[in-house]
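Case study: Protein odr-4 homolog.
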Amino acid sequence: MGRTYLVEESIGQYLTELSTKVKPYVTGLLIGQCSPQRDYVIRAVRTPPKEQQQQEESLGPPKLASLDEEWITTHASQVSRMLPGGLLVLGVFMIATPELAKDGQNALRKLIFSVEKSLSKRRLWKPAEEEVSDRAALQICSATKKVVCRSYDVQDPKSSAKPADWKYQSALTASWVALGCTVNVNIHIPLLATSPSHDLEKNTKNGLNRWSKQIEESVFLINGQVKDEDTELLEGQKKFRGSTQPSTQFSDVKVLTQLCQGASTRSTATVQVCSGSINLRGAVKCRAYIHGNKPKVKEAIQALKRDIINTLNDRCEILFEDLILNEGPQKKNFGREYHVLPQRLFVSVAGSSVMLSDYKFGDEAAGEIQERFVEMLDQPVQAEDMHIAEDISTVDICPVTDSPNDTQQAQLTKATLLLKLQQNMGLVVAAAVAVLASIFSFNYFSD
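Here is what the predicted structure looks like once written out:
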């Protein structure tokens, strides 16, 4: 028996519109959520057009062999950053002319495995053994509008196509459950003296990988309660007869991180020669969404855990990409510097109760965020629908060779910078405490 994909009804209209414009083919991503019983597809997003591709198509007869896998996988990586917990790239689609239909499934299969390989490299978590690993391959003929849906097991390189049902449903996310939390972060990452060229990105990744294991082992309180993982998430929240309970329910979650290892775990101290350290401190806003079909507690907790891990990893990646773009990949020695970390924001999308996510630097205007949504998600959004979830955060990079006087001066300089930020924002003294609590510091010490 193949997988069943329940699909938001508006996606059918979107794909139909694309099929009238396609010349000779178009590819895209399917975004949704897996569950043991069925999968949910809540968005379809076309691959952004590439000028070079348009020029190649005008020079000769179209061929699917000319598909730019790197362009498509890069798009998938960018889109995955914009998805809150519980959502993932669930598959790929292709709309093609009848002449190209014959090779369509082979091309889709190749794309599915390429996209999954690219996304898995960025993850700091491992899929659970019982987790659904099938991904959808949707093919539509632009002339006949015939829809063929199959699935492939991305954990099996030799997986063959399996038939799958593609069923449209209206208001698919109306009864979904939202979960949110704020996680305080205090991560100390040593930089080994043997680390080549003070590889900040690699060391940060290793430190985040260790931290992600602590998140995996944390205790999650849902609405103030510890719930058994195998119980239903909505147990005790049944609708009363005759009541009009809001369709979208929100659960507040507290994350309790263990301060030490369990008594059964043996630990030994390790002495290492270090050239400095990286410190990540602050508070991150996290959110996850779960389908409303009797979801289990473990599904909700897993989705939120992954959002916590992903959001910190993503913003570090974005920061390093920005540094390389502005300062060049050859920069190895860092002096005292300040940077502003990207803030997380959530965006309401028309026709869905699920909010999408993005990150912005302080100097980015709302128009730039709107352009990114159109380019990455083929989705126009209004400025008033963008909600910044976090206060301004800073990155502090300082050398280890500071003398005591230099260190005091550096601390004074940082305090002065923060004071200026507060004055510019018109904050009162009472509000300053909240701002300092949300500061997301990134300290780097080098020889």
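For the exam, be able to explain this: The first helix runs from residue 9 to 21.
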